[in-house]
Amino acid sequence: AGPSASADPAAVTVMSPPELVAALGADRASWIGRLVVVDGRVALDAGRTCAADADWCTLGTLDGTGERVLATGYTNALLLPDTDFPTTGVMALVVRETGLEYLGYMGYPDGVSFEAPVASFMDMSQVPRGPMVLITSGWLVAGLPTPCPAQLPPAPQDTPFEPCPPAWLAGEDVQPVVVSGGSVTYVEPDPGFHVQYGAYGDFAADPAYGPVGIAEPKFGSYLVRLVSDTRVTEAEAPRGWQVVGRLSPSPAIGPSGKVGIVEPSPSAGTSPAPAYTLECGPLAADPASCARAAVVAVRLALGGSAAAPASVTIVEPGPAPSCMPSGPVGGCRVPDIIVWVKPAGDGLAVSVPLIRTEPSGWISPAQIR
Fold first, then answer.
1. What's the average model confidence in pLDDT over 178-187?
2. Is the pLDDT at 77 greater than 70, yes or no?
3. Cα–Cα distance between 309 and 314 in angstroms, integer?
4. Which residues contact 42 (CB under 8 A, 6 or more apart)?
5. Which of 180, 240, 253, 280 is the most buried if burial means most Cβ atoms within 10 Å?
6. Residue 329 confidence (pLDDT)
């Protein structure tokens, strides 16, 4: 069937399409949100069209099954127009309620396994084409959430082509953020490589922030995908690496690296309790989304403060919510939730409007370009 990757807590095993059908037929609900590695072929739909910014597109059907294969518009744009090899062979897929999400084809860096050390990701000169997926173990870390100048046209969201803030997968437990005399500098990890900034919040195990909001490096085994800047033609496009999942500890796979969806399991089904009182309000039914919204709001409300808030309360916008400045000059968006962050001590609570970007991702309206 092919090689397997030893990724704690369990090996990633290659399945055949019939094996996948049997597993899903027995209990699909327990597989939703989980990574599956399948040796097969996607029969691509003839004449399919898919906008680069589409949330979902249908690629085709997994041969030998009735499973429809889906992808985001960005993932579809990573496929190659002159060959179907990325959709033939061993592929990384995620089980969804109504089909399988395609992440990419699995790479064999040494011809034996799917794993590669962090150092091998630094040289892009010998990397093949297309959305190749690999496994690597290292420390995920991010820079400070400082404002970033707008790009025209904007880079694909949640990719390493957004110029800032930076994030890395490092081969050693190092802190690339240096704060001295009120200024911030970054020391590139070596070995290490850039990934999308959102990777830390989405996939680091128990993300934590130290003094002045510096992210603490978090070790894990991560699923990493080769991506390209789709603003440029494929032959000339810069390429980089995007984290699309965490295999250990506590597996978490997301739609194209945007949001970590925790694999249903006793060890990974709950979010760690925050160090403050958290009222989820309209997000009470989705604790993971509530926790992510709280982290984003606290970071925006307290800025460089190292102190934890006293409480965080999430509420729905009022009956006549205000339109918040967003996107191009003169643009605005109505927030999906309002988060009240109460600092410790006698400080007044701060209101933070947030907009949902994916099933459990959150950003400020001001961050939309």
1. 82
2. yes
3. 14
4. 59, 60, 61, 62, 63, 69, 84, 87, 88, 91, 102
5. 253
6. 44
Q: Tell me whether the omega of the peptide bond preceding residue 153 falls within 30 degrees of 0, making it cis.
A: yes
| The amino acid at 35 | L
**What is the spatial distance between Cα 136 and Cα 242, in angstroms, rounded to a whole number?**
12
Q: SS3 letters for 101-155?
A: EEEEEECCCCCCCCECCHHHHCCCCCCCCCCEEEEEEEEEEECCCCCCCCCCCCC
pLDDT band at 294 (very low <50, low <70, confident <90, very high): confident
The pLDDT of residue 307 is 57
Torsions phi, psi for 53 (to 5 deg): -105, 15
At 51, give phi and psi (nearest 5°).
-70, 145
**Which span out of 86-95, 245-254, 311-320, 325-334 was modeled with the highest average pLDDT?**
86-95
Which string of DSSP letters, residue by residue, matches 301-315?
HHTT--SPPSEEEEE
